[in-house]
Specification:
A hairpin with a 4-residue loop joins β5 and β6. Strands 3-2-1-5-6-8-7-4 form an eight-stranded mixed beta sheet. It is an alpha+beta fold. Helices cover 20% and strands 26% of the residues.
Length: 204
Amino acid sequence: TTETAETETATEEQSEVIPVKFEELQAVNPDVYAWITVPGTDIDYPILQHASDNSYYLMHNIDGSYGYPGCIYTENMNSKDFTDNNTVIYGHNMKNGSMFGTLKQYKLQETIDKSPYFWVITPKEAYKYKIFAMYVANVDGDTYTLIKGPGKETIEYGESMKAKSLINTGDYQFKQTDKIVTLSTCTGDSATRFVVQGVRIEPD
């Protein structure tokens, strides 16, 4: 029927835009709700969120087994639709390069020059983020401020974080409505984390 044909066409169009098979991933673990890919690194993983235990995926894998490498995840203070003004995504800095083990490549100017963007994909949207900062943050520092609504606080936060950047990321004028994603991984020092931050832009 025409209705069936339209539905099939819509599904085909969505599969072209959303290259992640979320139904298959959620059949393994329903906590999967998004995917992150960072060109220029080996970061290409599902993002999970546990309903009640924010540290669960530090030591649990996607199949529920206990131990490393854990999963890429967000805490439940962040919404799952990436509408928060700052969404923090965590992952282990694994020695074998898995999880966020290659995030440290952004300590090099050549990495940001070649790969200045990363993507977050949900079942409905693919969001592109321009990287604007990378630096070592204190675990209890202002980097982890969760801004829930648009306002001048978003501009002030973005400018403050950009000023911390270890390397040049180019110009960007922050807006009150900006959506920022903070990628956070361990450094070997329990008091600090290495972070890479991006701000959502319109896909090309």
